[in-house]
Design a protein that fits this description.
- This protein has 246 residues and is α+β, with helices and mostly antiparallel strands.
- It is 35% helix and 20% strand.
- The strands form three sheets. Strands 1-2-4-3 form a four-stranded antiparallel β-sheet. It has a four-stranded antiparallel β-sheet with strand order 5-6-8-7.
- A hairpin with a 4-residue loop joins strand 5 and strand 6.
- Helix 1 runs parallel beside helix 5 and helix 4 runs parallel beside helix 6.
Length: 246
């Protein structure tokens, strides 16, 4: 299979845009970095609030992500956050009791912004086979996606270039979505409060049927209000599941 070539300011473990690389790039759209010593590392986070997951679910997810990372030689860079925290690493977004999994990717260029990373990957991603694009979307929602009561899977975002890229990807799969962009993001009633971030919102039925989910916890929450469905195991990535509706 012919994969698109990538040139970025990160050590991704591969110069090719494979399903595994695409999955982690989706996670990296969280735009989180740490500098534990001399080097800057980009964080691919999978984050859960303390009352929203079971330890068995997190352990299962961890094993899947480890398998994905092993394709890139990054299995040692994938750990529970508690592992790195014991070594003195600090993850500001994992606050208020949040737990999860992180994979660290070393920054190889002197400077790198999310805008630059998106620019580096967009052409290759849009030119890739559908299963590569799906893998990126799986990663995007696997780490931070939520489900709301209006049957949408949602993700907060704050970068308009990311929003524009995701819209193009959604359109490729004819997904039903709406976007609260960062320029017109949901305003708070208190005019002095910080505005809410933009939000990517995709209908859960289409997403589950066409894209899929790895996270056992998020799969459970995304399917909670679907009465009848069958699970389809997808070998594009370890643990990836889609659904067909009965």
């Amino acid at each position: 299979m012919n994969y698109q070539t990538l040139t970025t300011g990160l050590d991704l473990g591969s110069k090719f845009l494979t399903p595994q690389t695409a999955y982690f790039l989706g996670l990296l759209m969280a735009d989180e970095t740490i500098k534990p010593r001399d080097d800057i590392f980009w964080v691919a986070p999978i984050r859960h609030n303390p009352t929203y997951f079971e330890n068995t679910e997190l352990e299962e997810h961890y094993n899947y992500v480890k398998q994905i990372a092993s394709f890139l030689g990054k299995e040692n860079a994938t750990q529970m956050t508690s592992f790195f925290i014991r070594q003195g690493y600090k993850f500001p977004k994992f606050n208020a009791g949040k737990s999860g999994i992180v994979t660290l990717f070393k920054q190889t260029s002197e400077n790198l912004t999310l805008d630059e990373l998106i620019n580096d990957i967009s052409e290759a991603l849009l030119s890739s086979e559908p299963h590569i694009i799906r893998s990126f979307l799986v990663g995007l929602f696997d780490g931070r996606g939520s489900y709301d009561n209006s049957s949408f899977i949602t993700l907060d975002y704050w970068n308009e270039n990311l929003g524009s890229l995701v819209i193009k990807l959604f359109d490729l799969f004819n997904l039903d979505y709406n976007i609260n962009n960062t320029l017109t993001a949901r305003q708070r009633q208190d005019s002095t409060a910080k505005p809410r971030r933009g939000q990517l919102r995709v209908k859960h039925l289409g997403y589950l049927g066409k894209i899929g989910v790895i996270s056992p916890n998020r799969f459970k929450r995304f399917t909670a209000k679907i009465e009848k469905y069958q699970i389809i195991k997808d070998n594009v990535l370890p643990g990836l599941k889609k659904v067909s509706f009965i």
